[in-house]
Amino acid sequence: MLETELELQIWSLAAQVYGPKLESFVSQARNHYRRRPGLDDPTRIYQTSMESSAFQALVRAFIANDHSGFCLENGYIEMRSALRWHLSRRLQQMLIEDQHATDAMRDNYFSADLGL
User: Fold this and answer.
1) Distance (Å) of CA 14 to CA 9, 23, 100
2) What is the pTM of this model?
3) Domain hosting residue 52, numbered range
4) What does residue 78 show for φ and ψ, rounded to 5 degrees?
5) Nearest residue to 11 via CA among 113, 103, 94, 97
6) Which of 14, 37, 96, 110 has the fewest CB atoms inside 10 Å of its own CB, making it the most exposed?
């Protein structure tokens, strides 16, 4: 499974499981993010690639926090790769803790912890 496919599954499942609470969870994850010195590649998340509710929760969380590290364009959000990884990783952790994650999500999470 490609990393981006898994990421989109994480966002979709989180939108289904957490519903309207997803926005606050994303905001909390965003607030705990600390950028490391150096440059990260910019990445795009397209609205068509994930559930509308997940995309809208992400947009609202960034707008509410007045975050300057992302760019909202027509149909996509652009952000740095480290921030994108941090948000997906936090949602993945929450899904695992709440016992909603798929086997692939669990395997990916724990293999990253082990450095595999």
Assistant:
1) 8, 10, 9
2) 0.86
3) 3-33+40-111
4) -110, 130
5) 94
6) 37
